[in-house]
Amino acid sequence: MTIIKLTKSTPAAGAPFYTPAQDPPAGTALNTGAEVPTLFTPFKLRGMTLQNRFVVSPMCTYSADDGHLTDWHLVHLGAFALRGAALTIIEATAVTPNGRISPEDSGLWQDSQIAPIKRIVDFIHSQGQKVGIQLAHAGRKASTLGPWHVKPGVSEVATAEVGGWPDNLWAPSAIAWDEGYPTPKEVTAADIQSLVQSFVDAARRAVKAGVDTIEIHGAHGYLISEFLSPITNRRTDEYGGAPFENRVRLLVSIVRAVRAAIPADMPLFVRVSATEWMEHTGQPSWDLAQTQRLASILADEGVDLLDVSSGGNNPAQQIKVSKYYQVDMAAQIREALHKEGKGDKMAIGAVGMVADAEMARDVVQKDGETAKADLVLAAKHFLREPEFVLKAAAELGVQVAGPTQYHRVHIPKSQRL
Question: What is the architecture, at CATH level 2, of domain 41-410?
Fold first, then answer.
């Protein structure tokens, strides 16, 4: 008698196409009885639980079609989820057409841009992983060419002939990014209210696309970052000038509006530049002390994670680069929050030069000392090594699940047929 063994895989729940369920998802530490470093322990933010502490940082790729993501983005982003990244954040996505860095940037200012994002979300969810999106406005740094088009002697500005909008740049004050760049328009109070609503509308579209979290981009010299800095914000109204409370008002307004518009169980992230690296000028600038003050405010406003980066607001910046240069600032912000008793209100993410397993472990490790951060964000290293999570696990001696379909890679040679 012939015995037929049923071997059909359980399909991934909710996926609009057939794929085997990843149970558990790639990058999940297996229960072997061995001690597991914090890097491979779960982390919960509101209704989102990550199986490890690795996050793919948002990275612009200048490859969207009128703001619509394409199959290129599906393959690009899906590769990270497939290989164990617990959370992948979709690149800076403009909330208005003039908020794009380049004419080929991602956008979410119209409903037709929801479906391409949902396709990516569906794939990442089919792998048991989480996906976020970064909402942004590029301010005075908008309407530029993709980096591979920029050559010596060629202007970085995207003119109207190539789909740019150099005559419609927004900024807190009419101060150009650098010589040879257009002078932006100083936004009006009405423009600001419109901008806040654009963030809300984009956030609602992101929710329809099924994302697990939303990040507001307040770093790197883009519009919100420009408002934070007294160098680029010379306004005399309630949104600017010397008073700290005025310069943070736009970001706080956007946070409040977006927090109210998204589900209560959806975590909200904010990315900031901890410093604009202009201390050498002797003039007032955005710095770590102000970021610590801002962090305290954002924790009270319902932000769940502060993503700590730096720089990008002035071409004259002098960055003091070292291996832990941004991680250390994240650690100081986290320490200040905990001293205020707000450490449980808002987590901290560290990004910058995290390119090996031991450093990633060190950033989040809790072994009797305060961790430097709660999540590790990496960008360039994921481009170099999409399997960063799996390689880090192997290097640290942690046994983790791999992609089901790649099972032969994860079993000892002696057990292979």
Answer: Alpha-Beta Barrel (3.20)
